Amino acid sequence: MSPVPGSETPRVAVLIPCRNEARTIAGVVQGFRQALPTATIYVYDNGSTDQTAEQAAAAGAVVRRESLPGKGNVVRRMFADVEADVYVLCDGDGTYPAEAAPAMVARIQGECLDMVTAVRVSGEAAAVYRPGHRLGNRFLTGMVARLFGDRFNDMLSGYRAFSRRFVKSFPALSRGFEIETELTVHCLELRLPVAEIEVAYAARPPGSSSKLRTLRDGLRIFAAIVLLLKEVRPLFFFGIAFMVLALSALVLAWPLFVTYMETGLVPRFPTAILVTGLMLLAFIALFSGIILDSISRGRREMKRTRYLSIPGPAGPP
Q1: How many CB atoms lie under 10 A from the CB of residue 58?
Q2: How do residues 163-200 score in pLDDT, each as one tens digit?
Q3: Are 300 and 189 in contact (CB under 8 A)?
Q4: What proportion of the chain, given as a percentage, has pLDDT over 90?
Q5: What is d(CA 256, CA 162) in angstroms, rounded to the nearest whole number?
Q6: What is residue 99's DSSP assignment?
Q7: Phi, psi (rounded to 5 degrees) for 120
Q8: Rg (alpha carbons) of the chain, rounded to whole number
């Protein structure tokens, strides 16, 4: 069922991916029921071994299950299954305030946006926002800003609102916590209308632990950024490889050139062969980037066409 442009009562779906959040999920569901009384709240259980599903159902959520482990797999399933006009995606750990959701939904509708991201503010949050996570977020957000565009202050936030046309045209290829990176780069690649809103970031209750592992998941997110760079900006990616290989070849070739000019001889054939191989690889990388850049442009046009085929938010009258 397609959304109706101009509708005054958009269908809102709250999507909560979670695993082993029995201590917090009931409060999260109740918070969203109060903040968005007309919304349908979906909790997707990702292999919990505690009472997460039962607690969510008792609190009034529609409970579904995704067997493939990883937040990215859950988000892909949710985006495919759920039909709505506006979607609110939030973690089930109770760290994000449900009362911010109406403002996020209002901005999606009122400003015809495709994504609104909740930025975790500092201050009291500094005590609950682990230093490793905060430092990693700043580094990775800055990396994405330099490579793809500087439009976000909290790339790894787990609290966002989306338009229908974003959700139904988003590829969702990630498997784990790198899904937030993919969401961000998708917006930057297609230059979609987005906004941010500041929210207070709360501490987890005693006995509740984060599923995010700073080093392991940080490396996975870093690898995802590199992979997305290759897919989205292949000429830039392979251009770097070209420069590294070509400069290495020139540095190694310079002593050979000087010796040849002085004596007319090339005494170090292994080095000469290495230089030739490096330069060949450099130009292979360059032409690969040129070819893949054309393919990437075609894929971007297809994504844009699919995006435009879905009605957007109603917007102001």
Answers
A1: 13
A2: 999 999 999 898 888 899 999 999 999 999 999 999 98
A3: yes
A4: 69
A5: 59
A6: G
A7: -75, 120
A8: 24
